[in-house]
């Protein structure tokens, strides 16, 4: 069983941006809506699915797509997502499993050409916005599938994988994950892979990495780097969050930091929307607003029966603990999403909250997606 977070989930001044986003929440008039351009909303780690569907025969358990999933994505205003595919953890052969999942998602995108668009470059993000489709960026959350072959970076890049996370929570052949007891930093092979990713215009993602591994990669990379989904360790001291030093160095090199909608944003069992805002505001203070965005680590469509999901969560958490990939801060009663930032209205709600803490329209538009788009223009 390949039990990544995505699969455990069933997969996982407010004038300009706020007025449009609030359309789904019926917060503004139709006449005002018509005068506004559609904002760019990019989820730098997320999914698209209807988690309420039963498993679809002859389809991977993590693939649960129907019209509701597409409709909810459009209602939310979503432009694009960094979709986790390929090997993360578990008994599968990493390379074969990753190639198979790429083929599966290529087929899905061909099957739904009116709803989905495969993203290879920054221009494709604009195209997805213009065509009212959801752009799908292929991303890895582990590089185990590279084996010991540096040439596989180019192979996967050619297949459309343009974002690669160096490590998951544990050690791999590139470096240490954030839950590794001893972070020994990037390996010699990891350093070679960073150079290959620079050469082939692959975004290096340092989410889940240990701090030394993260700092090594920042120092070695000749291109800007991303942390697609994280929180701020200065606010909540958990391994999945990043230190101010990591955040600052990412920004200084022209990089990008996405704040997630995850339980690691609070010391309480479950984080809230206010916690998301606190971490975004802190990241803005450390990095500058132009380097911050959102990587929710979740989808748009809500669980209809939340109580039923909470029971299933106990089993999912036990599987992750048994596999040794659970992070500190996870638990059998800890929701892997923000309960008051769920559903198609989640981005509209976030905009309203960000406007209340005095972020400007320009800053909010950047956080929603324009900052990540500008980041991709520097790399792709």
Automatic annotation (TrEMBL):
GO terms for molecular function: metallodipeptidase activity. InterPro entries: Metal_Hydrolase, Pept_M19, TAT_signal. GO terms for biological process: proteolysis. SUPFAM superfamilies: Metallo-dependent hydrolases. The keyword Lipid metabolism does not apply. Transmembrane segments: none annotated. Residues 1-27 form the signal peptide. Keywords: Signal. PROSITE patterns: RENAL_DIPEPTIDASE_2, TAT. PANTHER family: DIPEPTIDASE, MICROSOMAL DIPEPTIDASE. This is Peptidase M19. The lineage of its organism: Bacteria, Pseudomonadati, Pseudomonadota, Gammaproteobacteria, Alteromonadales.
């Amino acid at each position: 069983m390949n039990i990544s977070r995505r699969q455990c989930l069933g997969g996982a001044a407010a004038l300009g941006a706020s007025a449009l986003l609030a359309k789904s929440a019926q917060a503004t008039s139709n006449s005002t809506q018509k005068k506004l351009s559609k904002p760019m909303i990019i989820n730098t780690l997320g999914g698209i699915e209807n988690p309420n569907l039963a498993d679809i025969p002859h389809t991977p358990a993590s693939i649960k797509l129907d019209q509701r999933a597409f409709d909810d994505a459009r209602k939310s205003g979503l432009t694009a997502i960094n979709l986790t595919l390929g090997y993360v953890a578990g008994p599968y052969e990493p390379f074969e499993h990753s190639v198979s999942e790429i083929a599966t998602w290529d087929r899905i995108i061909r099957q739904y050409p009116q709803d989905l668009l495969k993203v290879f470059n920054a221009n494709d993000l604009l195209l997805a916005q213009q065509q009212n489709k959801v752009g799908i960026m292929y991303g890895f959350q582990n590089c185990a599938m590279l084996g010991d072959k540096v040439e596989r970076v180019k192979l996967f890049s050619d297949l459309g994988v343009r974002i690669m996370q160096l490590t998951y929570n544990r050690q791999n052949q590139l470096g240490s994950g954030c839950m590794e007891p001893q972070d020994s930093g990037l390996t010699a092979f990891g350093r070679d892979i960073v150079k290959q990713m620079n050469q082939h215009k692959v975004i290096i993602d340092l989410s889940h990495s240990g701090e030394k591994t993260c700092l090594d990669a920042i120092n070695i990379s000749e291109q800007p780097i991303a942390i697609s989904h994280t929180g701020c360790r200065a606010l909540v001291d958990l391994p999945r969050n990043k230190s101010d030093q990591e955040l600052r160095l990412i920004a200084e090199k022209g990089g990008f930091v996405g704040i997630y909608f995850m339980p690691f944003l609070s010391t309480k069992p479950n984080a809230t929307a206010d916690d998301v805002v606190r971490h975004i505001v802190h990241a803005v203070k450390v990095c500058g607003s132009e380097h911050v965005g959102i990587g929710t680590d979740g989808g748009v469509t809500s669980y209809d029966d939340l109580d039923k999901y909470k029971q299933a969560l106990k089993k999912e958490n036990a599987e992750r603990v048994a596999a040794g990939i659970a992070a500190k801060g996870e638990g059998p009663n800890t929701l892997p999403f923000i309960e008051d930032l769920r559903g198609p209205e989640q981005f509209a709600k976030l905009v309203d909250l960000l406007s209340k803490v005095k972020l400007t329209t320009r800053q909010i538009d950047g956080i929603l997606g324009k900052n990540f788009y500008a980041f991709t223009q520097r790399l792709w």
